[in-house]
Structures
1.
Amino acid sequence: MALGKGRLEAFSDGVIAIIITIMVLEMKVPHGDTIESLRPLIPVFMSYVLSFVYVGIYWNNHHHTMQIVRSVNGATLWANLHLLFWLSLVPFVTGWMGENHFAKWPVICYGVVLLMSGFAYNIWVKVLVRHHGDHSSIAQIYDGDWKGKLSMAIYAVAVTVSFFNSILGFVLYVVVAAIWFIPDRRIERKLTYPGNENEGR
Amino acid sequence: MALGKGRLEAFSDGVIAIIITIMVLEMKVPHGDTIESLRPLIPVFMSYVLSFVYVGIYWNNHHHTMQIVRSVNGATLWANLHLLFWLSLVPFVTGWMGENHFAKWPVICYGVVLLMSGFAYNIWVKVLVRHHGDHSSIAQIYDGDWKGKLSMAIYAVAVTVSFFNSILGFVLYVVVAAIWFIPDRRIERKLTYPGNENEGR
Amino acid sequence: MALGKGRLEAFSDGVIAIIITIMVLEMKVPHGDTIESLRPLIPVFMSYVLSFVYVGIYWNNHHHTMQIVRSVNGATLWANLHLLFWLSLVPFVTGWMGENHFAKWPVICYGVVLLMSGFAYNIWVKVLVRHHGDHSSIAQIYDGDWKGKLSMAIYAVAVTVSFFNSILGFVLYVVVAAIWFIPDRRIERKLTYPGNENEGR
Amino acid sequence: MALGKGRLEAFSDGVIAIIITIMVLEMKVPHGDTIESLRPLIPVFMSYVLSFVYVGIYWNNHHHTMQIVRSVNGATLWANLHLLFWLSLVPFVTGWMGENHFAKWPVICYGVVLLMSGFAYNIWVKVLVRHHGDHSSIAQIYDGDWKGKLSMAIYAVAVTVSFFNSILGFVLYVVVAAIWFIPDRRIERKLTYPGNENEGR
C-alpha cells in the first residue's frame, strides 16, 4: 500500500520551482530605458515579492513535513496534486493584483487562492496523518496547529475587509506571511529526537 | 543492456511538472479589475482544470508503474519521450479549446491528443513488459487492462460525437478523467507483496 | 578533485526538460476555431517535432554517457554548461524556422546551432575522457566515434546546401536525426560488462 | 535541528535551471526571414550570454559549496530562497538591458541585481558557516574570500561608472564574470582531503 516518497518530493519541487520562477515573467520588460519606466512596475514587483515569500513558505513547510513522512499512498498523491493546483493559480492572481494596483476584486481573488491553498495544505496533512496513524510524529506535530488555523482566519478576514478597503486586505496578507516566515521549529525539534533516520534522500 | 531508472524518472518529472504548470500561462491576466473581467476566462479555467487532472493522472500512473520497474533500456527511453511528446501538446489544445468555448474542432483535437497520449502510454507499457519478461509483475498488472481499453474507446466515441455536439464530447472527457481519478490500486496492492524492495529512490 | 555526478545530472535534466517543453510555447494558440486555422501552424509543428527528437537524442546520449562516468570536475561543469547553452538556442531557431516556412536564413541558423551543439558535445566528451584517463570505459566507447563525425559532416553540408535549397537542408537535418534515433548500443553493451556498479542514482 | 540537504539542492537546481532557460524567451523570434532581421537581437544575445555565464557561475559555486555542507537548517532554507529571489530578477534586467542597447538605467539596474545576488550569496555562506561551526571545512574555505570581495567592489564601481558611461559598466561586468569563470579550486582541493565522504547524492 505504501509508495516511496522520493518522486513525490521531486515532482513537487519541480512544480513549485516553476511556479515561483514564472511569476517573474509577469514583470514585463518596459519599453523605455529611463528609471521612470520602472515606476508602473512597482505594484507588480510588490505582488511578486509577497507571492515569492508565500510560495517559499509552502515549499519550506512541504519540505519540513516530508522529512518526517515515511511513505505515501495513492490518496497522498492526489492531495498533493490538489495543493499544487491551487498554488499554480498564484502567478495568475499575483499578476492580476499587481497590474491593477491592488484593486478590490484582484485582492479578493488573491485571498481566495491563499485560502484554498491553505485548505488544500490541511487536507494534505490530514491524508498523511491518516496514512501514518494517530500516534505518528506527523500527527503529534500537527495536533492543534494554531498557526495554520490563525492564518485561515486572517485570510477570511482579509477577503471580507477587501470589499471595503483592499489595501488593508493586502496588509493582512503581509501579516500572515510574516507569521510564517519563521520556519516550523516544531518539526526541526522533532528531527533531533533519537531514532530518526529519515533524513536526506 | 539495462540502465538505471533514476534519471528517466527525474527527466519525466521535470517535463510533466513543466507541462502542468505552463498551462496556467494560457490564462492571460485580464486587463480590467472587475469580477466581470474574469467571466471570459471561465471556459479557459475549466479546460485548465480538466487538463491538470489528466496530466496528474498520467504522472500518477507513470509513478506507480515506475515503482515496479527494475531497470530501463534504450527502447524505453524513446517510448518515454514519445509519451512526453503527446503530453507536451496538451497545453496547446487546452488553450485552443478554452479560448474557443468548446467549439467543434478544438474539442476534436483535444480528444485526438488524449487518444494519442493513451496509445503512447500503451506502447510505453508494452516496451517495459518486453524488457521485464512475460512473468514479471508489470506484465501481470497490465494484463487485461480494462481501464486503459475503456478509456481509449470513450475517447474515440467522444471525438466522433464532437463533430455533432462538442459539449457532449467534453463531458465524455470528464467522464474518463473521473474513471481514472481513483489511483491504480492494482499496483499499490502489488507493492505490498513480500520481496518488493524497489521503493524510494 | 572529483565531485559527485548527481547534481550535474539533475541540473542537466532540468534544463533539457525546460528546453524541450518551452518549444511548444512557440506554437501560439490560433484565434480561429476552424481546422483551417491550424494550417499555418503545420511548418511550426514540423519544426517542433524535429527539435523534440534532437533534444531527445541529446538527452539520451547524455544519459547513456553519464551512466559510465564515475565523477566530474570543475572543467566538466563548464563543458556541460557550454553544451546546455547551445541547446538553449534550439527553441529560438525552431520558432524562427517554423514561422518562416523553412526559408533560407532560418534553416541555415538552425543548422549552425546543431553544428555548435555537436561541437559542444564533443568538447564535453573530451573533458570527461581527460578526467577519466585514456584507458577508461568512456575513452574506449568514444574512440573513433563515426556517428558523431558523420553528423558534423552532414550538418556542414546541410548548412552549405541551404544557401541554394533550404528544403534540402531541412531534409538533411531529418536524416541525421534518423541516424541517431537508434540509441547508443555501444554504451548499453558496455553496461553489461561485469564490475559495473555505477547504475541508478 | 538538522535537515537533509537533498531537497535544497533539488529545488535550487530546479529554480536555477528555469532562470537560465527562460532568459532565452526574451529573445523574441524576429518576423523577417533575412539575416538582417537578427541584427536588432545582437545586444539581446550579448546580454543573454553574459547572464547565462553569471547564472552558471552561481550554480557552479552553489554546487561546490553544497558538496562540503553536511546538513541544513531552517535559516539555510530562507537564505537560499533569498539568493534565488535575486537571481530570479536576472532574466528581467537581462531583457531590459539587451532591448535598450546597454542604456544607462538598465545597465545600472543589472549591476544592482548582481550586487544584491552577491550580498545574498554571502549571507547564505554566513548562515551555513554558523550552522557548521568556525572550524568546519566551509568556514576555512570561505575565510578571507578575496574573489567574493573583489567582485562586490567591481560591481559597485561598475554601477557608479554606468551613470557616466554604461558601456564601461557592462565591460566591468564581463571582467567579473571572467574572474569567476575559473571554478573554485579551493573547494575542489578540499574535496581531496581524506575523510570526505560527502560526495554524490
2.
Amino acid sequence: MKVLKKIIIPQGFKAAGISCGIKRSGKKDLGLVYSQAPAVCAGVFTSNKVKAASLKVCIEQLKNKEARAVIVNSGNANCFVGKRGVSDAKEIIAALAGEIGVAKQSVLIASTGIIGKPMPLEAVKRGIPKVCGELSKGGLNNFAQAILTTDTFKKAVSLKIKIGAKEITISGVAKGAGMIYPRLQKASPKHATMLVFILTDAAIKKSLLQEALEDSADKSFNCITVDACTSTNDTVLLLANGAAGNKPIIKKGKDCCAFSKGLIYVCETLSQMIIDDAEGATKKIEIVVQGAKSGAEAKSAANAVANSDLFKTAMFGGNPNWGRVVSAIGAAGINMKEEKVEVCFNSQKVFNKGRINPLRNKNLLIVSKVIKVNIDLNEGNSSSKVYSCDLTPEYIKINAEYN
Amino acid sequence: MKVLKKIIIPQGFKAAGISCGIKRSGKKDLGLVYSQAPAVCAGVFTSNKVKAASLKVCIEQLKNKEARAVIVNSGNANCFVGKRGVSDAKEIIAALAGEIGVAKQSVLIASTGIIGKPMPLEAVKRGIPKVCGELSKGGLNNFAQAILTTDTFKKAVSLKIKIGAKEITISGVAKGAGMIYPRLQKASPKHATMLVFILTDAAIKKSLLQEALEDSADKSFNCITVDACTSTNDTVLLLANGAAGNKPIIKKGKDCCAFSKGLIYVCETLSQMIIDDAEGATKKIEIVVQGAKSGAEAKSAANAVANSDLFKTAMFGGNPNWGRVVSAIGAAGINMKEEKVEVCFNSQKVFNKGRINPLRNKNLLIVSKVIKVNIDLNEGNSSSKVYSCDLTPEYIKINAEYN
C-alpha cells in the first residue's frame, strides 16, 4: 500500500465542483463525480429513523446494478421539506442524466446543509450544465470543496495498492464537523452531516465491495463522535469502475484482503480528518477501553466516556478528571468495579484500582493537543477504540447561531 | 394540602449547618438533622455502578430499623479515595453518635463535593461538637445552606396535610446544579451530585414510606436532566418520626394517598428548583412526548431530545430548530415516522406531520425563559414529561475550571 502525498482521481473517473447559488456566501455548493464506465457501487447509511429525501432516493438508486454519476449539493439538506423533497431529488437526477447522457437509474445523489428549507431547484438545474462543463478539468479538488458546510478544511486521501500485476487507486473525500456520531449500516438510513465518497478504479464484485465497505465503516466512521448526535443523512458511497484493468476480485483471498486494507486506511484517514475538524474543538481525544467482558461492553464504555459532556469540558480545561471517566463508565450499565479499573492519561496512570496517582506534570493535559485515555476494566478480554474531542464555548457559538 | 410560604422544620426534628473548614472559601460545609424520636426512613440512590464511600455506608445504615440523625458534608464527595473512604464515613458516624448520645446504627450520612481527595477527617471531627451545639437554634435554613456546592440558591419546600384529625408537615431540602441526570432506584447506588433530605413528623409504616418515596422520585427527580451525566452519589433520604401524633398510616388508602400526594409535591418542587439552578443555564425546557407506543418509548424520546447537545445549544440561541428535535427522536430507536410527528414550541406548531410552519414570532424562543416543547408521535397512547435546560458557554466554564 502506497499512500500518496497528492490527491489523485482514480482512472476512468472525472469530478467537478462549482457554485450554483444555493449558498448565499457564493461558495461552491454543487459537486459531481462521473465514471466513464459503469461502476459497481456500495453504500452504508445512518440508522436514524428520520431520513433526508435525497438519502431515501439514493438508497433506492443503489439497488440498481451500476452507477455512472454522483451528484452532491451542500447548503441545503433536502430534509424535512415534505413530499417535494423526493420529487426534487428525482428531478435533479433526471436533469443530470439528460445532460451527460446516462440512464437515470445510474445516478446517485446526496445533500447536506440547512434542513427544512425547500431546495432552490431552479438554481441547481441551472448549475447542472455548468458543473458538467467543468468535468474535463478533472480532479477531486473542487468536488471536495463543493461538499463542505461548517468544515474548515477539505478532507481527502489517495493511495495505491498492487492487485496482481496491476496497481489500483482508492481515493476518498469526506465532509463533516458537527452532528457527528455515525451509526452506519447497510441501506438502513439516518440527518446528513457526514458525507463520504470513495472512488476506485479496481475491478471488484459488488457483494465483496459492499462487505468491505461495511467492515471498513464499522472500524472507522462508526468509531468517531463529535457531539453524540446521529445525523439523518450520514452517507458513505463507494464506486468501483474497474478502469485499472486488474484481474477482477471475485472472491475472498489475498487480493480482496489487500483491497480491504487499503479501504480501511482511506476510511480511517477520513474519519480522523473529521475529528480534526470537529466543530469548536481544541483537542482530539482517543479513548481505548480494554479488559471488557464483551466487544459490545467495551464499545459502550468507550462511547459513554467519549460522549460525556462533563468529561469533554474537563478536557477543554486540561483538567485530568479521571473521576468523570470512571463515573461515566459506571453509568453505562456494563460489568465494571471501581476497585478493578485502571485509567491512564497520555500513558500516565492516574487511577489504579481505586488508588489515585496525581499527574507528575500538572500541565500535561493543558499543553497536549491529543489526549489518549486508556481504560482497563480488568473484567475480560474485549477492547474498543473511539475518537472524540473536547466540548468548547466555540461549539456552542457555532450551533446556537446556526440555522 | 397547604404549601407554606416559609420553610419550617417538622415537629420533633432539629437541624443545623456550620463551617468546619472543608471548603477553602469558609462557606458552610457540615449539616446535621436530628430527630428526638427514632424515625423510620426510606431512601433511593443512584444506579451508577460506581458509588461514593459515604453512599455505600449510608445504604448499609438504612437497613437498620430506625434513624436518629443524618450528617452531611459538602466540599468533599468522599468518592474515589480508596479504602479509607468507608472507614472515614464510619468514623464520622461514630463521632456524631458519641456526641449526641445515639446508637451508631441510627446515623445516616451523605457527602458531596470534590472527588478523589481524602476527607479532612480531623476538621470534620472538630466540627461535630460545633454543629451539635447549633441544633438548639433550630430550623432548616443553615442545613439547606451547608449542603450546597455549585448551587446559586438554597432549595427547600414545606407543606402541611391533614391526616385524620391531625395536621402533619413534610419539608424537603435539596442540592444540585450539575452532573444531574438522576436514575434513582432502591438501594442500588450511583457520584453524589444530587442530595435530597425530606423530613416529616407523620407516623407511617416503613414499607409504605419506601414505596411512596420510590414512586415520588420516579415522577420528579427521575424526570430531570442538566447534562445527561448520572452521578455516583445521588441520594434521597426521607425520615418520618411520627411526632405529629397522627393515627399511624399502616395501609394504603385515603391517608396514605394524601401523604403520597404531599410527598410528590415536595419532590417535584425540589426537582424544579434544581433545574432552575442548572449550571450555566439561561432557559428551562419542558419536553412532553405524547402518542408514543409505550411509556418506555415516550421516556426514551423525551430524554433523547432533553439530552441532545445540538438541541440544547439551539435553545441557548433561541433558535426554533425543530429539525434537531425530530432528528434526536429518530436516533432514539423508537417507533416513529417523520410524516406522523407533530412538534410545538410554546404552543405554536412548527412541524406538522412533515409540513413546516415557521414561528409567527421569530423572537419567541429568544425572549422566553421557559420553553415548552410538545411532541406528538401519533403512534400510541403513552406520554412522558422531562425537564432540561439549555447548554451555554457558562456551563463549560464552570466544568472546565472545576476540579
